[in-house]
Amino acid sequence: MSDNLIERSERHGLVCLTVNRPKALNALNSALLDALAAELDALEAEPGLRGVVITGAGDKAFVAGADITEMRELSAAQARDFAQRGLATLKRLEALPVPVVALVNGFCLGGGCELALACDWAVASDNAIFGQPEVALGVIPGFGGTQRLPRRVGPAMALDLVTTGRKIDAQEALRIGLVNQVMPLAELDAYAERLAKQLAGNGPQAVRSAKQAVHDGLDQDLDSALALEAGLFALAFAGDEQREGMSAFVDKRKPNF
Ligand code: HXC
């Protein structure tokens, strides 16, 4: 792997970003946040994008947190800046119009867990370890963990994790809904290949609308959210994808999206 802090590769329109600082267990420092922001500049401008996966270099860590060495000397004002930069970058990742999936290949702690939570869902290798251990360092999560974790796993489990700082294994992460699937480390790549093919086989605008309906709907009351879905459903009939998808079914052929 090169010296780039974020490595980028692509298959069938699925872009894979690999956080590449394995000697520090891929800990997120300012330079890495900048590199991620630069990748997002490119991804936001890519009309053919079908999905994004994000993983860590090496076989030990996804991301072991924000960089403790860098944070150690921060003043309160600098800490606020650092957190704001991370929050803004993760918000942009979350807001990409296509599915964004964390492939968690080892330690997924602190800011690493927050990075995974900013993804639409996560799959984990069976050696993965999760946690929000910030309290053991005398701080709290600062890249969204106190807000996205309870939304993903419920407030009681989130409070357990953010106040005890205890670490959980992949099976427990699966049980509490922090990850969708657990698999051997060696199978993560095949998962990404399957995902790329699945997304490439679906209507690209339909996939985007499905994501938008879930994300935007969660911020609204149920009646407004159902109206949002109805609007996006109808919109699908105004484009070419619906005719192609349904004609392909009737003609017993694969759709050409
Ligand atoms: C900087 C880190 C790091 C981190 C690991 N390293 N995690 N450097 N920041 N978050 C470095 C180590 O210093 C070490 O460098 C190398 O990576 C290998 O780590 P080891 O500790 O030697 O490995 P191991 O004994 O296997 O332990 C793995 C580990 C441990 C359990 C993951 O590294 C660990 O506890 N890391 C910190 C996890 C954590 O507290 N994360 C939350 C950070 S706070 P050298 O040079 O010695 O080889 C946070 C806040 C987010 O994320 C919000 C910010 C606004």
From TrEMBL:
The keyword Lyase is annotated on this UniProt entry: yes
- UniProt xrefs under Gene3D superfamilies: 2-enoyl-CoA Hydratase, Chain A, domain 1 (3.90.226.10), Lyase 2-enoyl-coa Hydratase, Chain A, domain 2 (1.10.12.10)
Q: Which GO terms describe its biological process?
A: fatty acid beta-oxidation
Keyword Transferase recorded: no
User: What InterPro entries would the database entry show?
Assistant: ClpP/crotonase-like_dom_sf (IPR029045), Enoyl-CoA_hydra/iso (IPR001753), Enoyl-CoA_hydra_C (IPR014748)
- List, alphabetically, the CDD domains matched: crotonase-like
Q: Which Pfam families match?
A: ECH_1
Mention one GO molecular function: hydro-lyase activity
Q: Which UniProt keywords apply?
A: Lyase
Judging by the UniProt lineage, the source's domain of life is: Bacteria
Report the sequence similarity comment from the record.
Belongs to the enoyl-CoA hydratase/isomerase family.
What is the protein named? Enoyl-CoA hydratase
**Organism phylogeny:** Bacteria, Pseudomonadati, Pseudomonadota, Gammaproteobacteria, Oceanospirillales
